[in-house]
Amino acid sequence: MAWVAAVRRKDLSFSRVPASMKVCSLHFHSGQPAYEMLDTHPDWVPSLLLGHNEVKVTNKERFARQSRRRLKTHQEVKEEEVEVEVARQGSEDRLRQEAENTAKQEAEAAQNPDQHCVEERVLCVSKCDEIDRLLDENRRIRHELGELKMTEQFFVEDDVKVRYYTGLPGYATFQVLLGHVMPFLPQEPELTPFQMILLTFMRLRLDLPLQHVSHLFRVHRETALAAFHDTVAVLYARLSPLVQWPDRESLLVSMPDPFVDTFGNRVTAIVDCFEVFVERQSDLVASPHTFSNYRDSRTVKYLVGITPQGVFSFISKGWGGCTGDKRIAEKSGFLDKLLPGDIVLADRGFDVKQSVGLMCAEVRMSAFTRGRHQLEAKDAEETRCTAHLRSHVRKVVGVVRNKYKILSSTLPVTMVVPCESENMTLLDKVVAVCCALTNLCPSVVQ
Fold it and tell me: Where is the composition biased (Basic and acidic residues) (predicted)?
């Protein structure tokens, strides 16, 4: 049809073309028509010497470019087919080789089954050894990481570490304490409950500065300080019942023989005061109240009572260092604990016989010479026995101060400021916690 349109003869139409009609070769560039599917070829239709110029001659260069593109595409397809064939052939060769090797191994195993089993057993043992080695290495690395991060792995089944960092007798006791305290600690984004407890024990036991423990646990100093305050508050709430005034029946059951021999079964408590040093206060009004003439420094004074068995049974709140022992004994609530017939062993500073007498109880102190050159034999013997038994309280106080070194250091004045919405200071709670923890340890009184 394209030829009819190109020739443009009036006696020809699309529906009527004589079968004998031909187009001369002179009308084609190459002397012959092109293949009918090459519609971009210059000789796809006759275009020369037609008597008109209405047929647009196809650009030869354009056709040449298209031909080259077709040839290139055809070559690329051929190359891909060759590569696929090579890969397929290689895969078949590899599979064939593997099949031959497998068949060969099976044949060898069939001929010598014992040797094959031995080889498999050796390979299995080798793999098991490697797995065991990797598991051991993993456990070791996890343990080392736990120690670096101060996690529970730091203390597992290690009584030496527990005693050094906490003052408690062993890992089992520490585990019981953790279960009693950890559920009540606040959730901190930077510290786990265990780390909060360990940080607090490091402050109490070793008196490590806050800056030091903040570096150990990789937290800011303010974060370490907040964790210390929160943990001390929880420890006080959970452990303060360990410091409890015992009932008379409990005392009678386990009263040590030296007390029974000297005082019968009436001794209820041995009392004494100890002082904790604090920094100089900027408040000139409050500062004189904390000055202790005995210590020649600023201190906070606590009245403590222990049972004849050497266990803390009473701890007062803190008083200024200048406050007398007698006043603390009368105002701290200690006298309210006494029952008629009780005997309290005290130092000479506790001259509270009149107040104790109102409770129908008795205070035993060392005898005074009262102008005499020496005591009578009876008074001297009683004084010797009383002084020996009364010394137990100083032993117990010495233990708690040596065990928790924060009580032997000079503490910041901020620790003697009452806690928010409470009538107790942080130092009051620290002293109570240290005494309660000491009660978890074996007594020094035999």
Answer: 90-107
